[in-house]
Every structure is written in structure tokens, then in C-alpha cells.
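Design job #97: recover the sequence.
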């Protein structure tokens, strides 16, 4: 038997291989080799950020002879102290629900629409083991507590599903049935998730002030501007300053960071050191600015850019 560790990462796409006895070892190896190409793509896919289920439940039971359930019944809910997490792929074709039972149980449910289509209400017959289902087949997998199917057949029905941005699952009501290794014994269950409305995505803005300074002492250009946001974040601001003076191209880069809070623009200031021997001079320069921050709710990198013409005044101070 191939045993899974409860600490095994389940945030995002992954591949799994397990069995339940010596007679399955050859099967596991064959499946692993046959699906090597597909596995590479899954491992390279961006991972979604799981969210805690605030209200919902997951339950299943199995026939005698069902390897996963061992013929027992299981039920989990945050209301009874169990932990449930959920995430969806960015294209909304796949949902994964993870259970950390208060009693130490750990289970995973995967539901995937065929062909990368968005999961929607309806019947999904002819499902095979996720993530090794073909493009023409729905994907399904219920596994955990050290047990999983090498191959499976099954189906699921989605009564209701609603998504937010970046893998957020707002609502899911579904039932599912799974048969390991082509057997007749079935595992049957249902999942219900009712999360709050998704948080607002991070909105980031950057501006460049139209006036700056050119130091006559060290040749550097000092420029600035503001950043704006709708959530408290640290913002990295970077870019380039370009000037043509007396037919000479002068360039320099800059980088700084500023804390941004909603309600008022946060000022930033940075200096650009010319890359050559010619200093920045009084006159006009082109400033390219890029602001970058991590969305605190979704873990996504958000950027904002602006290009502006800035007039540098002569300065006798060190930048």
C-alpha cells in the first residue's frame, strides 16, 4: 500500500500515485509512466490559493468492499470543529475540497469538468480518476486516510456552483459516486459549501510627478509620485529615466518601496543613477514607472504602470 502523508501539499494542481497491496505496484508504475507528460503540465500550472470554508459540510459512505470508505460513513463540518478548505482552478474547471477532521481524519475531493470547461450545474457521467482523466472525461477523486484508487469510474451531479476571482469558490452543492478499480462497490457522498461573497481584488495605481531634480554634484535624477490602493499593502515602485541632452542618450534605473493604505495616495521618491559618464541635466526626461504589490486576499501579483514626461530642475544637493 502506498500511504499519503497528511502534510502532503494539496494547494493547486498535483499528481498522486498510490495503491493497496503488492499486486498494485506494477499498475502504479505503469500509470505513472503513461501519464508522465500530463503530470509535467500539472506541476507547472499555477497553484490556486485555498480558502477556508466558513459554512458547509462534506459527507460520504460506502458499500461493504469499497476500499476508500471501508464500508463506513463519514461526515465533517466547520460547525463541529472540522477544517474544510476549498479552491478552484483559475478557469473554474476544477474544484478541490480538503478536509482536516477534528478526529485526525484527512480527505480530499476533486471534481473536474471535461475539456477544461467551467464547472456548471448538471450531470457529469463517465468520470475517471482526476488528474489523469482524458479531455473527453470528467475528473473525480475521493481519497485520504492513506487510501486512494489507482483507477476509478464514477459520476457526479452539480446542483449549484458559483465562483469568485482567482480560484475563489463562493458556493458548491454536489453529489458524487465513485467505484475503485472497476469494482461494483460504491462510495457515495455530497458536499455543500456556502462561503461569503469574494473579497474585492487589489486595485493599484501609480502616478509620476511632473517635476524632479538633477543634481549637479552626483549627476543623479530625483523623481517621485504617488501610489494608490484599496487595501493596505507594501508597494514596490521601479522604472527607468531616459534623457537626450546634446545628442547624448542618458539612462538610469531606480527602485523604492512605500506602504500604501486606502483613502489617500502614498508619496514615493527615488533616485536614478546614470549608467554612463554623462550626468542627468536640467530639462525634460521620460520616466517609466511600475508599481507592484501582492493581493492580500488572493496572493496574486498586481501591477500598475505609467509613463510621463518630467522636467528636471538643477539641484546643488546630493540626491
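Job complete. Output follows.
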Amino acid at each position: 500500500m502506498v500511504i499519503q502523508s497528511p502534510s502532503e501539499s494539496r494547494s493547486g494542481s498535483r499528481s498522486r500515485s498510490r495503491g493497496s497491496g503488492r499486486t498494485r505496484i506494477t499498475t502504479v508504475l505503469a500509470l505513472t509512466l503513461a501519464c508522465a507528460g500530463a503530470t509535467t503540465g500539472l506541476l507547472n500550472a499555477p497553484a490556486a490559493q485555498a480558502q477556508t470554508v466558513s459554512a458547509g459540510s462534506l459527507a460520504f459512505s460506502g458499500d461493504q468492499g469499497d476500499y476508500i470508505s471501508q464500508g463506513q460513513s463519514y461526515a465533517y463540518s466547520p460547525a463541529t470543529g472540522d477544517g474544510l478548505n476549498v479552491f478552484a482552478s483559475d478557469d473554474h474547471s476544477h474544484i478541490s475540497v480538503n478536509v482536516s477532521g477534528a478526529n485526525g481524519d484527512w480527505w480530499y475531493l476533486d471534481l473536474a469538468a471535461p475539456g477544461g470547461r467551467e464547472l456548471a450545474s448538471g450531470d457529469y457521467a463517465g468520470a475517471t480518476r482526476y488528474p489523469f482523466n482524458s479531455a473527453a472525461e470528467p475528473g473525480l477523486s475521493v481519497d485520504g486516510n492513506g487510501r486512494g484508487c489507482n483507477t476509478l469510474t464514477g459520476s457526479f451531479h452539480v446542483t449549484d456552483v458559483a465562483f469568485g476571482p482567482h480560484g475563489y469558490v463562493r458556493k458548491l452543492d454536489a453529489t458524487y459516486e465513485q467505484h475503485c478499480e472497476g469494482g461494483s462497490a460504491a462510495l457515495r457522498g455530497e458536499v455543500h459549501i456556502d462561503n461569503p461573497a469574494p473579497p474585492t481584488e487589489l486595485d493599484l495605481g501609480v502616478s509620476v510627478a511632473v517635476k524632479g531634480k538633477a543634481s549637479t554634484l552626483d549627476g543623479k535624477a530625483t523623481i517621485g509620485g504617488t501610489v494608490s490602493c484599496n487595501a493596505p499593502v507594501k508597494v514596490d515602485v521601479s522604472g527607468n529615466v531616459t534623457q537626450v541632452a546634446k545628442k547624448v542618450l542618458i539612462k538610469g534605473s531606480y527602485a523604492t518601496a512605500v506602504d500604501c493604505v486606502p483613502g489617500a495616495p502614498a508619496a514615493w521618491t527615488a533616485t536614478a543613477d546614470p549608467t554612463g559618464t554623462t550626468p542627468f541635466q536640467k530639462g525634460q526626461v521620460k520616466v517609466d514607472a511600475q508599481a507592484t504589490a501582492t493581493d492580500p486576499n488572493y496572493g496574486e501579483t498586481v501591477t500598475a504602470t505609467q509613463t510621463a514626461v518630467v522636467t528636471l530642475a538643477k539641484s546643488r544637493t546630493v540626491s
